[in-house]
Design brief:
binds iron/sulfur cluster; 397 residues; TIM Barrel; four-stranded mixed β-sheet; 13% strand; 41% helix; alpha/beta
């Protein structure tokens, strides 16, 4: 059996670790050395001096949900006085603010709303594409797709094909948490199981859509269960890359955000949950090593804060995430975004340069949109408002 230090050498040479080797490295390896190797791999696999970011906006189209995940502070049951579904006027205003910032994508997700038929999603996507054709629509997560399929009595293939035809460009990786059903049954018993989550991604990738992979740690899961989750992602990545070359664009991980506003945060077992910054950085570095078929790893400033996100750029990450412009989900569980809900482009540049890299704007497929070889001023990176495309006839719903 290899020692952890031998496993790091093996990984540094580009050899894949088995799940058993991964478990040994993760549990016995020195975190600092693991981060160094992860950083070396990142320098080999992505442009070394560059850290990328995306100008996009998170939009939560509805907070209505019937799934009762134990860690969620965002949802409201149908009929709750704070329940909402976004209007086109509201959506359009948000997108126009994004366009002013030079944005290229919206990431739109919501609860499992039992009152929205598939036609609602199709109409919304068609309207988005007709009104804002330059904006890429990465919307809904596998569990939302499963919810629509259940409500409509359709397969997930049918749902995804119809939404893709209506304008859906990508399926974000939300709702993966830990891809191990023992954990999922405990923290979100009504939510999508591992095989279904992966199958939705498999279909989306086959359809040529943009997809990302995520993992959230700190639900009281074991290290083995984290390895199981990463292994399932690695297997699907192998499968999709071999079948058609379109796999996950990136891996993004963060820590569970637990507070008095969610069931896990109020639980008498609260002390067993959560993960600290060191664990976040170590896990991110381990994931860079273990997921040898992924290219891009994103630092999560919304959950970890700016200092830790900058450190993550030396623990395997090559991307600083996005401007977001608003955040409504983890903010309600007292995440960093409660204090700083969005990041201006200037502030993103500042953070990336502070970490010692050159910032570059990318699109959702990680293609470089713009490089910034010199330091830009606040004025140069300020938003430029655009004429509104909303009118009483096109924004009435
Ligand atoms: S995490 Fe998503 S699916 Fe779970 S309760 Fe919250 S909104 Fe619903």
């Amino acid at each position: 059996m290899y020692k952890a230090s031998d496993l790091l050498k093996k990984a540094a040479n580009g050899e894949r670790l088995t799940p058993e080797e991964g478990l040994r490295l993760y549990t016995e390896g020195d975190p600092e050395t693991t981060m160094e190797v992860a950083h070396q791999l990142r320098l080999q696999k992505t442009e070394p001096g560059l850290v990328t970011y995306l100008v996009d906006r998170n939009i939560n189209y509805t907070n209505v949900c019937t799934t009762d995940c134990q860690f969620c502070s965002f949802y409201r049951l149908p009929g709750h006085p704070e329940a909402y579904v976004i209007t086109r006027q509201e959506l359009g205003e948000k997108i126009e603010e994004l366009l002013a910032w030079g944005g290229t994508r919206i990431l739109m997700q919501g609860g499992h709303n039992p009152d929205l038929p598939i036609e609602w999603y199709e109409d919304l996507l068609r309207w988005l594409k007709a009104t804002y054709p330059e904006i890429e629509c990465d919307c809904f997560s596998p569990s939302e797709i499963e919810n629509i399929a259940h409500l409509e009595g359709m397969s997930m293939e049918e749902v995804l094909e119809r939404l893709h035809a209506a304008g859906l460009d990508g399926l974000p990786g939300g709702g993966a948490e830990i891809l191990d059903d023992e954990v999922r049954k405990r923290i979100s018993p009504k939510k999508t199981k591992t095989d279904v989550w992966l199958h939705a991604m498999r279909i989306a990738q086959r359809l040529g859509m943009v997809t990302s992979a995520t993992m959230v740690i700190g639900f009281g899961e074991t290290i083995q269960q984290r390895i199981n989750s990463l292994t399932r992602l690695r297997e699907l990545q192998d499968e999709s890359l071999a079948a058609h070359g379109n796999g996950f664009t990136a891996f993004i991980m963060w820590t569970a955000q637990l507070s008095e506003t969610n069931s896990m945060g109020r639980s008498r077992h609260r002390d067993k949950y959560g993960a600290n910054y060191d664990e976040y950085l170590h896990t991110n570095a381990f994931a860079r090593i273990y997921l040898d078929n992924f290219t891009n790893f994103q630092a999560s400033w919304p959950t970890q804060g700016l200092e830790v996100a900058r450190r993550a750029l030396y623990a395997g990450a090559n991307d600083f995430g996005s401007t977001m412009l608003e955040e409504n989900v983890v903010s309600q569980a007292s995440a960093f975004t409660e204090r700083e809900p969005h990041m201006s482009v200037y502030r993103l540049h500042e953070q990336i340069r502070l970490a010692g890299f050159e910032p570059a704007q990318r699109d959702s497929r990680y293609r470089i949109v713009r490089r910034f070889e010199r330091v830009m001023t606040k004025e140069e990176l300020a938003p430029n408002p655009i004429p509104s495309r909303l009118s009483p006839t096109n924004a009435t719903i």
